[in-house]
Amino acid sequence: MSKRTALVAGGTSGIGLATARKLRDRGYDVHLTGRGKERLDDLAATDPDLTGHRADGGDAEAMAALAARIGRLDALVVSLSGSEGMGTLADLDLDMLRRAFDAKFWAHLTTVQAVLPHLAPTGSITLVTAITARTGMPGTAGLAAINGALEAAVKPLAAELAPIRVNAVSPGVVDTAWWSGFPAEQRAAYFAQVASVLPTRQVASAEDVAEAVVFAATNSTTTGTVLESDGGARLITM
């Protein structure tokens, strides 16, 4: 039996990298993409058994060419994101929100469409969204729109692309580099406050969420599902 192959778009850090490592540990030949040469160089040193490629998920030609070079894919994980999108509606810069849609919503769909011809009939597509799609946190309307749009596509795509499976994983607050723009003390205080009210009493790590992503990507009977890996954030007011 030939080795299974996975592509993790946006796999040089955070949930994407944790997912790539877990898929490797499950026996997959794992390819991943990133836009920054420095992170890819670092990855080549720390994880030489992961194959990194410099590519932008929003570039259809680049992603299609990469998929063609790799060949048949058994799993596609899309963990692309940007750092923009937060803000109250009254003050929200809509040009910034358009960029945020480009960085996540359009990049996810572009990647899926470009890679689709190279997915095995028994393959899977797993999107990484966010809990903002189904909570009422002030200041997250823009993020909710982006992630909600992606999650709304999961069921129709699962029906349309069958037997390829299509799922999403919806994380809550996760301790990743996404929060690096916040001062360390402020970030630590916010994480402590969040952990105190979450049903699980903890802020997730990238590895925690990656376990859910790997399940969605590899479980042969799971499709059309948004798997919540949020510590119960959807159950409370944050």
From TrEMBL:
<keyword id="KW-0560">Oxidoreductase</keyword>
<dbReference type="InterPro" id="IPR051122">
    <property type="entry name" value="SDR_DHRS6-like"/>
</dbReference>
<dbReference type="Pfam" id="PF13561">
    <property type="entry name" value="adh_short_C2"/>
</dbReference>
<dbReference type="InterPro" id="IPR002347">
    <property type="entry name" value="SDR_fam"/>
</dbReference>
<dbReference type="InterPro" id="IPR036291">
    <property type="entry name" value="NAD(P)-bd_dom_sf"/>
</dbReference>
<protein>
    <submittedName>
        <fullName>SDR family oxidoreductase</fullName>
    </submittedName>
</protein>
<comment type="similarity">
    <text>Belongs to the short-chain dehydrogenases/reductases (SDR) family.</text>
</comment>
